[in-house]
Amino acid sequence: MISTLKNEYLQIGVSSLGGELISLKAAEDSLEYLWQGNPQYWSKQSPILFPIVGRLENGSYHMDGQVFKMEETHGFTKESEFQLVEKAADCLTYKLTDNTETLKKYPFKFELTACYKLEGNQLIIKNSVKNTDDKTIWFSIGAHPGFNCPLYESESMEDYYLEFEQDEFIHRLMLKDNLLNGEKELFLDNEKVVKLSHKLFEKKAIILKDLKSKSVTIKNTRNDKRITVSFDGFPYLGIWSAENDAPFVCIEPWYGITSSQNANVDFREKQGILSLECGKTFECEYSIVVE
User: Fold this and answer.
1) Burial class (CB within 10 angstroms; exposed 0-12, middle 13-18, buried 19+) of 31
2) Domain segments of the chain: what residues?
3) CB 286 within 8 A of CB 253
4) Between β-strands 160-176 and 179-195, what pairing exists: parallel, antiparallel or unpaired?
5) Alpha helix positions (H), the chain
6) How many angstroms separate the CA atoms of 16 and 27, rounded?
């Protein structure tokens, strides 16, 4: 089921499958900013990542002497059916709870909510995880919105660039087979602008940790359209596009990160993992401003 919201600036669509944002348009001209999920490149659009970010080595993890299989990249949430629990004039709220199938892969009870709220030309996405178990639970959570890049057929990705809020001196964490390999590579040298191109993603996703910036803006040299993603509090940021010249770019705030090669650690010791005590709730939010 798809639900919609609209104000004088924006109109959005959200699917109950995955609780996923599937449309983000400017109200004045219906220009679509969100990637539309062409399976030739990438079939998703803005999945919620839970209870892992990235991949597990060999598609499994261990805890207390037991081995659990979770072969899906970014967890099982994107293929789960959410319940629409509130539809207000400016907000849609969805909820997913544990069930028989999730407990086979992830032995914890939880409530995961996703709220999409319109405030002027800003979409605020708030996620919360509530521990409904009788023990501490462990998880990661993240966002994965993809944006059309270019916005118009007459343009190319090479017309676009990213501009961080501040100058950054930062290395990217490198991947092999979509797992961290322990290597780093200089990404920004006291700079804040990154020119976009398909070549930029030949080495897979760009993973950045502990940025000074709290936002990044997608701009271009052909017009004044821009998209700003704000991610205050998130320790990791992923930037990704498919390697087959896909016409989109993803800006991904994460609380968590893909597994390391040959780590073989208990799930509770996984890099970036979060813990949550019984009855407690973890909350995080990011926003998208369209101009």
Assistant:
1) middle
2) 2-290
3) yes
4) antiparallel
5) 100-105
6) 22
Q: Pick the closest to residue 291 from 142, 167, 163 (CA basis).
A: 163
Which residue, chain included where needed, has tokens 């959410």? 82
pLDDT in tens, the chain (291 residues): 999 999 999 999 999 999 999 999 999 999 999 999 999 999 999 999 999 999 999 999 999 889 999 999 999 999 999 999 999 999 999 999 999 999 999 999 999 999 999 999 999 999 999 999 999 999 999 999 999 999 999 999 999 999 999 999 999 999 999 999 999 999 999 999 999 999 999 999 999 999 999 999 999 999 999 999 999 999 999 999 998 899 999 999 999 999 999 988 999 999 999 999 999 999 999 999 999
Task: Residue 250: count other Cβ atoms within 10 Å of its Cβ.
Answer: 25
pTM over 0.90: yes
Tally: H helices and E strands in the chain: 1, 22
Q: How many CB atoms lie within 10 A of CB 226?
A: 15
Task: Please name the fold of domain 2-290.
Answer: Beta-galactosidase; Chain A, domain 5 (2.70.98)
CA dihedral 13, 17, 19, 23 (to 10 degrees): -20
Both structure tokens of 261: 């090669």
Measured at the CA of 210, the angle between CA 53 and CA 275, to 5 degrees, comes to 45
Q: How many CB atoms lie within 10 A of CB 120?
A: 11
Tokens of 108: 């914890």
The position carrying tokens 């348009």 is 25
Quick one: which H or E segment has residue 62?
strand 60-63
Phi/psi of residue 182, nearest 5 degrees: 85, -5
